[in-house]
């Protein structure tokens, strides 16, 4: 610390309420001389600030304060002023910084009331496990006993929380009269680590379990050879018998550290050792230099045992295991040293700072890659102890290197200093995402996102991209990937929030943990990793991209204007809105899976604001359009916060082509607020009476009672008609005849409208009833159908639907059905088994996604085929289907199900065409939504956006509206079994032609526009058309009237 100035880094581990900040005040001028607060910055390591102080012998007094949300109120920490002398500093470990234990033994209290079996066993185990090694044994038993069963995630969760609280002293360790040297702790740790490694290497291990394993690693003691020796940590014994220190100090070290450590080692021993080290170094020269040096070495050994060493210390401990020819370690240490030294330099340019920072995080990334490469092979059953110990060190190092700052520090630099270059922020984001992948969280997804960002960075900003504006295309492409990166961080946070809060509350209550520690646990875990910095950086870049695109963060699925009280719900389900709420409601929905029906939450829903992306023709989007519910999504964090502040107010939601506005609306109360229990504003007329609405627009056609059960065999697709096969199958039959004619059709620009239709046949209405008769279940079936007509929504309806589905799904079609189908399809053809109900794909009732479609089945496996047909029949009586028919005024007994069997297509791309723009009702455009692989990605509520193209019907102009960012594509493996399942593959859009090839994008857009316009003319009204691209061929699999 020589020189006139001393660089001081201050760090405080303390959680505050959202919106509050921590500052420091002190006697030195650099600390505001008790008048002006010095703000501290939040990082993943806690609250930090860097200071430059005059080097002198005067002690500095200071205190920490919490600045309130109003930026005015100060809350001072209690107790005397803290005192600091520059020449008397001792570096404490992060382990000790987080210590929250007590100086004296306190009586433990355990509350086991209401605990379930697994957590009850842990708490009862702790009651008889006073010391650390016994507590570790409790964890070992919990992990081993649940490593194979369905309780594995729960066991790992409670183990992580329990060990964390032990290591921070909140669950105390005491002596119990026994005598176990630290080698016992090391041996138990090795057993736990072995089991965790086996779990991590299993194919069925969930990402959440990998996260928890990573949380457990730092809480285990080291089991290096020196700690598993019969008498470990002997240096402290030699120190306690030195002749160059006072007798009283020798006795204190012997009894309080040496004997305690060798009887019942625990985390509290590292705390005591660091307190002793601070004391003996307080006054230089007071004690023998040789004694102090040996005590410092012992302190380092003890930190190593508790896995509490600094990043550099841990790197040193594994250096022998790294590739000797690699320069990764030396490169990182050298870069980090340069970066640390820059803190004491004056007048550093922004470019110089970023250059050094980028070099450091690049070298860190290379080092982590090398460490992970050594771990990829997994743990052999016969792995020697030294190899296992090295794996433990390497895993612990991965955790520690996450906390080095990396991308987060660059994000803060860009945010605070307004760096204009995109290169460094994107580069930092790529590295940050790579770090997340190296940490075990969705590594394939991280790899794909990183590849995309690097590809867009390399392509640069072009003047034009094909025939479109290059700046806009660059922004749209980058936005898609940044949205995907943001989604990655949200899924991580959601995983931790699903894992921790409830379990922390349960375990915390049992152990009497302070409320604030429980309340902030999950937030602290999220903020402690690089994922938090990735989230900040991706959010920062997304805002910049939206500015480039002029985007407000809204997407309109159903345009219009709606009024209602703003109510926030988690998802759209029955009961989301209390029955006492009788006025119109606008829902703010956190999540959707795409299969919901808006009116399921209540007939008074006037509008929906969904906080995630959603394909326009997802099942939910189609139903919202049919139900005439204004529907928008919002992905801008600032706007989401503004929306939530309006909860409980009566608002106006306006979603028009010019944009989306949400504003308070005046009511008879005059202040924009309306008590929910007093709402009397009538529901907008779009709801009306379900039965009245249905009679004017919906006619359900089915075979009459004399015909049901009399239909036999199968019907070729070309012969399908509504009364026997349903509207969907009939439309597919007509598509087949139109396909032949389409070969001769071109639009005004000469673009062909040609398409193909998969071969198919129908298992007609009545076949299900025939199977019921043969199984002697018809009377039971009729009775259940009659009962669901009036069944209560809560409870009774669920039971009846489950019973009905169970009966029908167990049915098999008559044996002549597969025999007839076998004559129509090639041998070993893979088939799609689809619904074609008489209450589906009608002008007034699309019923999109209500009924099952089973992919990838074959007639060569009659059991699988029969099960698929049974599932489609049974889907007629899902809860959602029953409620949908109720809302439409269709009696349950009138519903019937035919089955459409078509040859399975393995597409490169799947699409949905809207021949009338769903956003602005533009009749001159065909809009396409496109996804890679099978079309279920579009129809379901998979998080993400599709490619969106618009094509002019009369001028052929193609405009790119959005690039795709779905994380996965669904494919059928040609060599795999035809078992009704599909494969999920991670998508890298930097390799997808539709993203990177503007010529292909224009050509496909024009072809889809021509096909959509042709079908609209032939069917006489606007259509929602589903299809796919196989090679260069377009296939159309379905069309239905577009909800208006």
From TrEMBL:
Keywords: ATP-binding, Carbohydrate metabolism, Kinase, Magnesium, Metal-binding, Nucleotide-binding, Transferase. InterPro entries: ATP_grasp_subdomain_1, Carb-bd-like_fold, CBM20, GWD1_pHisD, Ig-like_fold, PPDK_AMP/ATP-bd. It holds the Pfam family CBM_20. It comes from Forsythia ovata. The keyword Kinase applies. Belongs to the PEP-utilizing enzyme family. Coiled coil: none annotated. It comes from the Eukaryota. PROSITE patterns: CBM20. Its cofactor is Mg(2+). Residues 1-101 form the CBM20 domain. This is Phosphoglucan. GO terms for molecular function: ATP binding; kinase activity; metal ion binding. Homodimer.
